[in-house]
Specification:
about 280 residues; alpha/beta; 8 strands; about 20% strand
């Protein structure tokens, strides 16, 4: 699949997942709490600033920022999926936020002027872009001199069994293709060397990276599968297309794979984010 084909397939997938992400919004936000807290601390938003959020999804990370910007500040909350933008718009309305601009925008083609924002925040977006080099160059372009970028991506599959174990089960059964190391994926930017190189090529000079551990809790296998079907496009498609017998086999194999992480009748599946700040 070439980059343009990937972009179109990715957009269609995220448009289809928007309703599921809205249903699972609170759980997604809870599981990512350590990452969100790290990002907000490092971003240190100030009243009156203009801050851009890329790949905002339901928008909760950015909305914490918006609450700290005051009436003179502005959050530009963006996603390339129109349906996701509407999810974020509804959430901002629930929170009573009046300083948020909601825009349909692709991180690889930012429809903003040069030097127009004070900071950019992106949680788990750059790793899924067809061309992260372009997305980071665009990010640098729209930042004002001295502006800062705060972001998070995932470390590798060994450090993120909450993602990788289900993928291995599906791949072993031939329901999804084996991972392509060169393709966009949750683990595409798991290396310090790769991330630093991309940032420096985009024009960032001051880069700091830290690991942030998380836990994804599920009350049982059915709970995990329901959440994965709502929020994971590849998992949802593969599981839905499997026969009843194959679904039962997938559930059994997931139970075996998750056994080391059993806790109180459910599961506490660990993960690690690579979190970074650059300017």
């Amino acid at each position: 699949m070439d980059r343009d084909e990937y972009r179109q397939a990715s957009l269609e997938s995220w448009r289809g997942m928007a309703a599921g992400w809205e249903r699972q919004r609170a759980r997604i936000d809870e599981g990512a709490t350590p990452v969100r807290e790290w990002m907000i601390r490092e971003l240190a938003p100030q009243p009156g600033e203009t801050i851009l959020e890329l790949a905002a999804g339901p928008g909760d990370t950015g909305f914490v920022v918006a609450a700290r910007l005051g009436p003179e500040g502005r959050l530009i909350s963006t996603d390339f999926s129109p349906e996701m933008v509407e999810v974020a718009r509804r959430r901002a309305s629930e929170l009573g936020l009046s300083n948020v601009d909601h825009r349909i925008m692709d991180a690889e083609r930012l429809e903003l002027s040069d030097d127009s924002v004070d900071a950019v925040i992106c949680r788990f977006g750059f790793m899924l872009k067809a061309d992260p080099e372009v997305a980071l160059a665009e990010t640098r372009r729209v930042l004002r001199p001295g502006g800062r970028l705060v972001f998070a991506v995932w470390r590798g599959p060994e450090q993120n069994p909450w993602i990788s174990l289900a993928g291995r089960v599906l791949a072993a059964r031939g329901l999804v293709p084996p991972p392509d190391p060169g393709a966009p994926s949750p683990f595409a930017l798991s290396s310090d060397v790769r991330v630093r190189s991309l940032l420096e090529d985009a024009g960032f000079a001051d880069v700091r990276i830290e690991d942030v551990p998380i836990l994804q809790a599920s009350s049982d296998l059915d709970d995990y599968i329901e959440t994965a079907r709502d929020t994971g496009g590849a998992f949802a498609a593969a599981f839905s297309e499997a026969s009843g017998d194959e679904q039962a086999a997938i559930k059994r194999e997931l139970g075996e794979a998750f056994a080391p992480y059993a806790l109180d009748g459910g599961y506490a599946l660990p993960g690690v984010a690579l979190a970074g700040r650059a300017s």
